[in-house]
């Protein structure tokens, strides 16, 4: 069952996240986003994992995708807040000459 697989995947990804294994969490979140293409939360989680790894451009891309999906309204402000944070970190890196 697809929903059961998504549920198990979320548990695994959250365990990776708790252990600071953000790349592994991202891989699971990517699989979940591919399974549930209309689930804004899955896209948001990929964006968070990218953010945690320092990939601000990737985070912004996935967060923008999450905002365009139906069902994102419930967490709209959280998604925008995280995207704003990613834009700020990206600008800081550009100003520091890290990009």
From TrEMBL:
SMART domains: TPR. TPR repeats lie at residues 40-73. It holds the Pfam family TPR_8. Keywords: TPR repeat. PROSITE patterns: TPR (PS50005). This is UDP-N-acetylglucosamine--peptide N-acetylglucosaminyltransferase SPINDLY. It comes from Hanusia phi.
